[in-house]
């Protein structure tokens, strides 16, 4: 099943200049693994040295923060999206 991936413009250099694309996977877990296997530089910007999602980054599966999901082996369906969101702050 194809899942749409949305990456903020600030990180699109990690995905070959693309901020929107799709990839093939059967489950959410597989899609996340494949995204970061295909784009290792993106992995560096999303995960810290301990393997946790960085404080200023959120990964959303449709409308759900994947950190809040008890199980990531959710079968993908048509229209599903995985969003990488990066908080920007300053003043």
From TrEMBL:
Membrane-crossing segments per the record: none
Matches recorded under Pfam families: ThiS
PANTHER family membership: SULFUR CARRIER PROTEIN CYSO, SULFUR CARRIER PROTEIN SLR0821-RELATED
Protein name stated in the entry: MoaD/ThiS family protein
Protein species of origin: Paenibacillus spongiae
């Amino acid at each position: 099943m194809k899942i749409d991936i949305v990456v903020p413009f600030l990180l699109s250099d990690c995905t070959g200049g693309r901020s929107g694309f799709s990839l093939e996977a059967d489950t959410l877990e597989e899609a996340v693994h494949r995204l970061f296997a295909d784009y290792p530089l993106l992995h560096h910007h999303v995960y810290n040295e301990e393997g946790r999602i960085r404080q200023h980054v959120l990964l959303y599966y449709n409308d759900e923060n994947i950190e809040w999901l008890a199980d990531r082996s959710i079968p993908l369906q048509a229209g599903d999206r995985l969003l990488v969101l990066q908080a920007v702050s300053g003043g």
